[in-house]
Amino acid sequence: MKSKATSFDIAHMAGVSQSTVSRALSNSPLVNQETRDRIKQIAKDLNYKVDKNASNLRKQHSQTLALLLFEDPTSDDSLINPFFISMLGSITKATAAAGYDLLVSFQNLKDDWHAVYEDSNKADGLILLGYGSYTDYEYKLSQLEEQGTRFLRWGAPDEKHPGISIGCDNFLGGVLVTQHLVDIGHKSFAFIGDADESAPEFKARFDGFMSVIAESKLNADSVVQKDAISTESDGYNAAIEILNTGKPDAIVCASDLIAMGAIRAIRSLGFKVPRDVAVVGYDNIQISEFASTPLTTVHQNTQLAGELLVANLLKLINNEIVTDYLMPPELIIRQSCGRTT
Amino acid sequence: MKSKATSFDIAHMAGVSQSTVSRALSNSPLVNQETRDRIKQIAKDLNYKVDKNASNLRKQHSQTLALLLFEDPTSDDSLINPFFISMLGSITKATAAAGYDLLVSFQNLKDDWHAVYEDSNKADGLILLGYGSYTDYEYKLSQLEEQGTRFLRWGAPDEKHPGISIGCDNFLGGVLVTQHLVDIGHKSFAFIGDADESAPEFKARFDGFMSVIAESKLNADSVVQKDAISTESDGYNAAIEILNTGKPDAIVCASDLIAMGAIRAIRSLGFKVPRDVAVVGYDNIQISEFASTPLTTVHQNTQLAGELLVANLLKLINNEIVTDYLMPPELIIRQSCGRTT
DNA sequence: CTGAAAGCGCTTACAG
DNA sequence: CTGAAAGCGCTTACAG
User: Measured from the CB, is A17 under 7 Å from any atom of strand C?
Assistant: First the structure.
């Protein structure tokens, strides 16, 4: 194992000063074209790469973005929400395309926030990604902001939270999917998913759902809502409870994972989807297409979302002005909602 | 935005030297318990964190591991193989648990290997994760090894490739799933998946498959094999080709994604799974359980794999001896293979 | 266009 | 147990 070459080694070989090597390698127009090429060739031959630690220390920035994933505390390892996975993929690519590195870390609700500060030190900016509220972190987020840490969060814009958010219009998504159910003739509805402050995305979906119920002059009082976080088993349990009290025409679920559980529950009681009960989800995760009954759901453009998140975080880092942004959701009609014609 | 505190600031406030601060914060037993506590308290109050760039530069290591994901060049963004996603999750956690950071980057076959070297500079060790062969990278891997870069790859142990590998016994997996099909009475078989040098994992699964065919005294000549990389569409196309020439009792697929495509193909021709044609996959990705016909498949313990990968890479970094390791696969029997009794 | 020098914020021998 | 000092490998004013 040979020790790594430094810029001094290159300088020595090229017969120039170390400063010139540094300039040449960073494509400074200050250095003579010819010299620059020669230095680059030598660097290439030696497989030399600039030491990032030294470079970053000197430049006082890291060329690194950190992605902080907030998981639901109950979800087990193997069940990372596929939606986030998809986001992870697009963020990774967008980051790389921008010439930045990506540090990924999972934040656990149980831990204290050590990791965030650590990461904020190693990264020029942070992307926060997670379902549910960042309410628990509000204080920490304020602290980050005070320190001058640049961060963006995925989710609903929210006056009460520090920081800028980029998200998908959950209210509109809830409207789209519920309106479709109404349009094709469903009359009675249930909703599965947390619908309080702790889960702003879910709540917005629920609000969209309720707004359609109200406008359609359906009996809002007959609507059942059951709490659930985004897991298959929560969906299952909530659906069982609902069906024990009565059978709605359609169940609107706050996520595809919940919908998968609801479908399993409906079947376990001997009903058929969508014949006896229609089910719709949210997220358009991969499973939803291949599911036993392909799921009608709401698609969020994760590709675009990743690009937006990275592009805007970079703007933030460059002290440009960034505002909240809400992407439009897209209704995906498959079989689980019933008669589509 | 206030500028960040440094160890000198802490030293000033604590009335000690900067060296002492550094020692206290790294829990050196050299410094007086009381002083240590006082310094730590101040650091906490100031929300001070050690500058990693400076620390790493000085210590000449990065406390960072890099995960290099090799994707099939054809797979589109949204379809990152769920198996890798699961690995990503477990690697992320294992890395964090070990007190390291994780840098994630997607290597694109089209690009040159710049990223690898970059990453090798920012990380103490590399984990290579991808389906298929690393043949194309063989030269680069040798170079990495020469430079003294520590790396581990996920996959089949392979004499011809540099580096140590940790993987799952693909041959045995192929045996398990095929033997089960034979046991429950299937007689004629097809295999979908690349079965040449370029895809060592798939080839090993195929070899396991063929060994069962041979031992079962079935007519090996009648076995059809069609190439496919791990995508739903490749699986679909390959299955269509197979069914156009004849209908085997069972199709063994080199991955779950391929199996999903095969099932779609079988249905599109009016056949039923498993009644007319049984299908089995490999990987036990999340979809396989929720699929229209739950998939019989082979499970690889990604949780363990991630831990093993990280633990062994850390050993490598500490100059301990590490050897190839092959994890046992586990057969998961669901409905797609037919009569299970 | 090029070089000598300072300094980014740490860790760790070295000396006491 | 503590401090003064060197140095990790760069980038970038500063001077020419």
Answer: yes
